[in-house]
């Protein structure tokens, strides 16, 4: 079983749609959780951290369910510029800062 | 004002050669990382240095040798290159356990 699992997609949605990505992780000792965004042939960049209480940043909402070891990302009012691969990321146990990446979910927003 | 830079951006070489990739960060971070992203887009940690000390050393062939001459630099030397080494190699830096900032990547092609 992969340590972080995501549906690779692709998700093809029209502009203005709401789209949700899910992710599960296997290590219950993971401490920190993130969504990164990676554009085609570019480096990953932090989109947002994910907290147990849920957090929102504009059109983006992230949720964490520690009991189910499940993370989600909701994008409202999709824009063409949201087209990218979204990477679910968790830290391993320990203090090394090691990040474990999911395979990524590809989003294509169409006009 | 590049935060994390890597050279070269592209590297095409023959099997059996030895090559190096260089990484530099000007963010004042104390931790640097090497990641490999293969053709299936999985991003996996290879090595990490904190204050020039190796803290993460994943199961990587010993043909790969990282070197950190100072906190701002982390180089990756690869001996006897193989076809399977073809991938994009990303350098990243952070304060330990904080957000990681990635370089633009080095696309290595082994022929």
Unreliable runs of chain B, pLDDT <50, ≥5 residues?
none
Helix content of chain B: under 10%
Taken as a percent bin, the fraction of beta residues of chain B is over 45%
- Which class best fits the helix and strand makeup of chain A? mainly beta
Count of DSSP-assigned helices of chain A: 0
Assembly context of the chains: heterodimer
- Tell me the total number of β-strands of chain A: 11
Output the radius of gyration of chain A.
13 Å
Give Rg of chain B in angstroms: 13 Å
The amount of helix of chain A comes to: under 10%
Coarse morphology of chain A: globular
What shape does the CA trace of chain B take? globular
Query: What's the average pLDDT of chain A?
Result: 93
Jot down its keywords.
heterodimer, A: 111 residues, mainly beta, 5-stranded antiparallel beta sheet, B: 111 residues, 7-stranded mixed beta sheet, 4-stranded antiparallel beta sheet, 57% strand, globular
Chart the SSEs and their pairings.
The complex is a heterodimer of chains A (111) and B (111).
Chain A (H helix, E strand, L loop, with lengths): L3 E3 L4 E4 L4 E7 L7 E6 L5 E7 L4 E3 L2 E6 L4 E6 L8 E8 L7 E3 L3 E6 L1
Parallel strand pairs in A: 2-11
Antiparallel strand pairs in A: 1-3, 3-8, 4-5, 4-9, 6-7, 7-8, 9-10, 9-11
Chain B lengths: L3 E4 L2 E4 L5 E7 L5 E7 L5 E8 L2 E5 L6 E7 L2 E6 L8 E8 L6 E2 L3 E5 L1
Parallel strand pairs in B: 2-11
Antiparallel strand pairs in B: 1-3, 3-8, 4-5, 4-9, 5-6, 7-8, 9-10, 9-11
Overview of the molecule:
The complex is a heterodimer of chains A (111) and B (111). With 111 residues, chain A is mostly beta strands. Chain A has no helices and 11 strands. Chain A has strands at 4-6, 11-14, 19-25, 33-38, 44-50, 55-57, 60-65, 70-75, 84-91, 99-101, 105-110. In chain A, a hairpin with a 7-residue loop joins strand 9 (84-91) and strand 10 (99-101). The mean pLDDT of chain A is 93. Chain B is mostly beta strands. In chain B, 0% of the residues lie in helices and 57% in strands. Chain B has strands at 4-7, 10-13, 19-25, 31-37, 43-50, 53-57, 64-70, 73-78, 87-94, 101-102, 106-110. In chain B, the strands form 2 sheets. In chain B, strands 2, 4, 5, 6, 9, 10 and 11 form a 7-stranded mixed sheet that branches. In chain B, strands 1-3-8-7 form a 4-stranded antiparallel sheet, with no helix packed on it. In chain B, strand 5 and strand 6 form a beta hairpin. The radius of gyration of chain B is 13 Å and the shape is globular. The interface between A and B is medium-sized, with 21 and 22 residues.
């Amino acid at each position: 079983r992969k340590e972080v699992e995501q549906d690779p997609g692709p998700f093809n949605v029209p502009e203005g749609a709401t789209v949700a990505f899910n992710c599960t992780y296997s290590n219950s000792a993971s401490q920190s959780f993130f969504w990164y965004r990676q554009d085609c042939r570019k480096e990953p960049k932090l989109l947002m951290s994910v907290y147990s209480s849920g957090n929102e940043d504009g059109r983006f909402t992230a949720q964490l369910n520690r009991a189910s070891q499940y993370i989600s990302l909701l994008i409202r009012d999709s824009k063409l510029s949201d087209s990218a691969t979204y990477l679910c990321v968790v830290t391993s146990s320990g203090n090394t800062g090691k990040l474990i990446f999911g395979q990524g979910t590809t989003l294509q927003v169409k006009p | 004002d590049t935060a994390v830079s890597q050279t070269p951006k592209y590297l095409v070489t023959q099997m059996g050669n030895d090559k190096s990739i260089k990484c530099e960060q000007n963010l004042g971070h104390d931790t640097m990382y090497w990641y490999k992203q293969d053709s299936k887009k999985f991003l996996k940690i290879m090595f990490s240095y904190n204050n020039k000390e190796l803290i993460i050393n994943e199961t990587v062939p010993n043909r790969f040798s990282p070197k950190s001459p100072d906190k701002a630099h982390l180089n990756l030397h690869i001996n006897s290159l193989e076809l399977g080494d073809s991938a994009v190699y990303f350098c990243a830096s952070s304060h330990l356990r904080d957000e990681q900032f990635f370089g633009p990547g080095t696309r290595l092609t082994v022929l």
